[in-house]
Write a structure and sequence with these properties.
single chain, alpha/beta, L-fuculose-1-phosphate Aldolase, Rossmann fold, 3 domains, seven-stranded mixed sheet, seven-stranded parallel sheet, 25 helices, 20 strands, 44% helix, elongated, disordered N terminus
């Protein structure tokens, strides 16, 4: 078996005495113990071979002053919601140690009672919840304790006989404990084990991970690195000596090169992802548009493709998660789809995908029914897959956001390295399904996801053209605040860069495509970017435009054609691309056009702009008529006198002068006598997006203009 180029197995000892000293100075107000705890925890959390996305935990036993100023012995342990790679002192809530140590005398303790006891003994009641493994840290009679799910250790203990392997690799330096559920049960059994094996430097948890401890932060950290690398060395030695197993041999008939590696392959991938996204969507009356949608993420590096293309994929990929903590983000098993066909026609494959998704959901229902009796009163979680393998295309993940989809992909990518290494050593044998079920449905584990009410347009993908400034930027920001994932386009790249910075600073998820929207290749790039980045498209805000002026009899043919290219044909091109993608998803969609009040109330000397904008209103209605039966809505906004770059180059002054008004009076020349802002237009677009039973309509956002009202 060829060693993985990105196995993540060996880890680097990154302890640096000078950096440790700097940390002590930086966190001097917190004391040396906590300062060094923060420093070494960040070393561990910053290594993906040890910790991924909030995993792992660490602690230090020290003293802190209570409210009276008296020193109290405490356990400072990683708090819920903190990432080890970026943790700061507040991420280690201080819990009174003495009451925790008394809890070892208990024969049993419910999760609720454990959480209550931990919170009840916090020095600061506003601190985050201590780790669910806080009692393990408390009971261990060592100052510093570190815990990870290191890839190398997990690959070593996900075996049929992990006890023998650990004895071979670690000798008697580490005690080995069969899998025990986290929380109070694990804490008690770890201590029972140490009573039988005094003097060990750590504990290996089968199907779980590694604890090490020491009298100093450096000692505990370096022990952790040492034992992880001992496991890695054993695995890498097995990999060198083992020939490739038949199940990892690539299957025949897969597309070459893989989808996405060439412009043609990129186009095929942009077809594939909306088909998959549509198959994963579920009809529900309780979500926007009647569908629960997913954001997709795709990866296809060399290792991932080799894994996806293996003849035994359906076996080795579906044996289960490498460590139970992964289940809440990856489910226990991935969805394995039929191989991607070589040709461009994906019609038959799309049908196979939909059937495979139905089969996966039914399998999950059976899994739930088989194990729900282990904890009566449970409600079934979402039955859709989070990890999807496609021979010929690689890895896909599905989640409520791109951030979460990337987390699932990171976990899946590390699982690939674990499985390949475990198979080289023996046979990848993860924890049994019943124990995984308990972990998936454990309330304390689900709490890590921080579930809350989703924003109205969460999980939806929106393209906004002309988004570099003005109405387009305001609209992109408004949709981002509603939870949408954005693709923004503009002619001017520098404006796009700034717009993207503003949206990201506001917490939005956004990618951008620069170029002339009247060009078909730019239109294609925008829609393909939506498909490749997020999996598809739900809303198009076709906003880009430019003003041309002149009396009609004097307008040359070239000027009029240029105006129509930007102000009409670009809208048609974007809408056509969007609709084709939406139809492939099968979950409806929404077209939103920025038309103009000029369509109903033309202005003098504005014909070259008015005519294509009037055609956009007709275009909007035609799309509403043609695709309403496919649940694709189509609406437009007619805005008036919005002070944006569209009125640059003296256009605003010319329009004001033509009416004998000052600029300020011109902008407020409406029934409300108030200037209408770009943000008002953006709110109008969001309103239409949320109005699920509205299509074929024009919404004026102009402060009131009877002459321009639709009739």
């Amino acid at each position: 078996m060829t060693p993985s180029k990105h196995s993540y197995l060996s880890v680097e000892n990154r302890w640096n005495a000078a950096e440790a000293k700097d940390a002590v100075i930086k966190y001097a107000a917190q004391g040396e113990d906590l300062a060094l705890r923060v420093y070494s925890a960040r070393l561990i959390g910053g290594d993906p071979g040890l910790v991924l996305h909030g995993g792992g935990n660490a602690s230090v036993k020290t003293t802190r002053p209570d409210v009276t100023g008296d020193p109290v012995e405490v356990l400072c342990v990683k708090g819920s919601g903190w990432d080890m790679g970026t943790i700061e002192p507040p991420g280690f809530p201080a819990v009174r140690l003495a009451p925790l140590l008394k809890m070892r005398q208990l024969k049993s303790l419910s999760d609720a009672a454990m959480v209550n006891a931990l919170r009840g003994n916090l020095l600061d009641s506003s601190a985050p919840n201590p780790s669910v493994e806080a009692l393990v840290h408390a009971f261990l009679p060592y100052k510093f304790v570190d815990h990870t799910h290191a890839d190398a250790v997990v690959a070593l203990v996900d075996q049929p006989d992990p006890q023998a392997l650990c004895k071979e690799v670690f000798g008697g330096k580490l005690a080995v404990l069969p899998f025990v559920f986290p929380g109070f049960p694990l804490a008690g059994q770890v201590m029972d084990l140490l009573d039988k094996h005094p003097g060990v430097e750590g504990v290996v948890l089968v199907n779980h991970g590694l604890f090490t401890f020491g009298t100093t932060a450096e000692e505990s950290y370096q022990r952790h690195i040492q034992y992880v690398n001992m496991a890695a060395a054993r695995l890498e030695d097995a990999t060198r000596k083992t020939k490739a197993k038949p199940e990892f041999t690539p299957r025949k008939g897969l597309p070459q090169p893989p989808a996405g590696d060439t412009p043609q392959g990129r186009g095929k991938l942009a077809q594939l992802m909306p088909l998959l996204r549509g198959a994963l969507a579920s009809e529900t009356p309780h979500t926007q548009g009647g569908w629960q949608r997913w954001i997709l993420h795709h990866r296809q590096g060399e290792d991932l493709l080799a894994f996806a293309n293996g003849q035994g994929l359906e076996d080795y990929a579906r044996r289960g998660v490498a460590t139970p903590d992964h289940v809440i983000r990856t489910k226990n098993r991935p969805l394995v789809l039929p191989p991607l066909p070589e040709g461009d026609d994906l019609g038959e494959w799309a049908g196979q995908v939909r059937q495979a998704v139905r089969n996966y959901r039914e399998e999950y229902d059976r899994y739930f029914l088989a194990h729900q009796g282990r904890s009566p009163g449970l409600k079934i979680l979402d039955p859709n897959p989070r990890v999807i393998w496609v021979p010929g295309a690689g890895l896909f993940t599905a989640a409520a956001s791109l951030k979460e989809a990337r987390i699932s992909a990171d976990l899946a990518e590390h699982t690939v390295a674990i499985i390949r290494s475990a198979e080289a050593l023996g046979r990848y044998t993860p924890l049994n399904e019943a124990e995984i079920f308990d972990m998936e449905y454990w309330s304390l584990e689900q709490a890590k996801l921080g579930k809350g009410k989703e924003a109205p347009l969460a999980r939806q993908v929106v393209i906004v053209t002309g988004a570099g400034s003005g109405i387009g930027l305001a609209t992109a920001l408004a949709f981002a605040r509603q939870g949408a994932h954005l693709v923004i386009g503009d002619l001017f790249e520098d404006r796009l860069v700034e717009a993207q910075r503003i949206i990201e600073q506001a917490g939005g998820q956004v990618v951008s495509v620069a170029g002339d929207i009247s060009r078909p290749d730019v239109q294609t790039a925008l829609v393909e970017t939506a498909a490749l980045t997020y999996g598809g498209l739900d809303i198009l805000v076709s906003n880009a435009g430019r003003v041309w002026q002149g009396a009609m009899a004097d307008v040359d043919d070239q000027t009029l054609r240029e105006s129509f290219e930007v102000n009409f044909f670009s809208h048609q091109g974007m809408a056509a691309h969007a609709v084709h993608l939406m139809l492939s998803q099968g979950t409806g969609g929404h077209l939103l056009f920025n038309a103009s009040k000029s369509a109903f109330n033309p202005g003098p000397q504005l014909g070259p702009y008015t005519l294509p904008k009037a055609a956009v209103v007709a275009l909007m209605k035609q799309y509403a008529l043609d695709y309403g039966g496919d649940s694709i809505r189509s609406n437009a906004i007619n805005a008036d006198r919005i002070n944006t770059r569209l009125f640059g180059d003296g256009v605003l002054e010319t329009r004001s002068k033509a009416r004998g008004l000052s600029v300020s009076d011109y902008l407020a020349g409406n029934l409300l006598k108030q200037e209408v802002l770009a943000s008002d237009v953006a709110d109008g677009f969001v309103h239409l997006a949320l109005s699920e039973k509205t299509t074929g309509t024009v919404l004026p956002v102009d402060g009131g203009n009877i002459a321009a009202s639709p009739r």
